[in-house]
Automatic annotation (TrEMBL):
<protein>
    <submittedName>
        <fullName>BTB-domain-containing protein</fullName>
    </submittedName>
</protein>
<dbReference type="InterPro" id="IPR000210">
    <property type="entry name" value="BTB/POZ_dom"/>
</dbReference>
<dbReference type="InterPro" id="IPR051481">
    <property type="entry name" value="BTB-POZ/Galectin-3-binding"/>
</dbReference>
<dbReference type="Pfam" id="PF00651">
    <property type="entry name" value="BTB"/>
</dbReference>
<feature type="domain" description="BTB">
    <location>
        <begin position="19"/>
        <end position="92"/>
    </location>
</feature>
<dbReference type="InterPro" id="IPR011333">
    <property type="entry name" value="SKP1/BTB/POZ_sf"/>
</dbReference>
Length: 181
């Protein structure tokens, strides 16, 4: 999308004109209401297309009312900005796993894939820097929260550490982790 078109769509979110959906996200005390356009969300997500259909949608005073308590306001704001502008930006303010889970739930596969790739690259970067514990912890978080294939499991179980030189700091770090488990 060109910058002018992106700005026009972003203005729709910020100016709250002609919205027809009110989505409450989060849990008490962190609840935020987003006023959005069903046509835009439905065009980007089959999840919303179904949720806003006459069969499922709850209406009050001419608005579709929708609750998503399992998604935090900061995560939902990132997803709404992506839906309206086609650009994804996190700035490391929100846990990528939380964004992945929410994006996966509402059918935004592009974001899910970007986050998964980013996290796997981060694991590889930790390995290259010799930060093995960080790599293993992040990889464990990925396996716990992101659907993965048998190939991913095999690849992780076949990591070869023989070319790495462990210093006392890394060994102490790994030993402390073992003791906790």
């Amino acid at each position: 999308m060109n910058n002018e078109l992106i700005q026009n769509f972003l203005n729709l979110v910020e100016n709250l004109k002609d919205f027809d959906v009110k989505i409450k996200v989060g849990e008490t005390p962190n609840i935020k209401e987003f006023k959005v356009h069903s046509i835009i969300l439905s065009a980007k997500s089959d999840y919303f297309k179904t949720a806003f259909s006459s069969r499922w949608a709850r209406r009050e005073d001419g608005f579709i009312i929708f609750d998503k308590p399992n998604i935090s306001p900061p995560v939902f704001e990132i997803l709404i900005n992506y839906i309206y502008t086609g650009t994804f930006s996190n700035n490391n303010e929100v846990n990528p796993i939380d964004i992945f889970i929410a994006a996966d739930e509402i059918g935004l596969a592009e974001i899910s894939q970007q986050i998964e790739n980013h996290m796997r690259n981060k694991v590889a970067g930790y390995f290259r820097k010799g930060k093995f514990l960080k790599a293993l912890e992040l990889n464990e978080e990925i396996f716990e929260n992101i659907p993965h294939s048998i190939e991913d499991q095999k690849r992780a179980s076949n990591w070869d550490f023989s070319n790495y030189r462990f210093g006392s700091e890394e060994i102490n770090e790994l030993s402390k982790k073992e003791e906790k488990d």
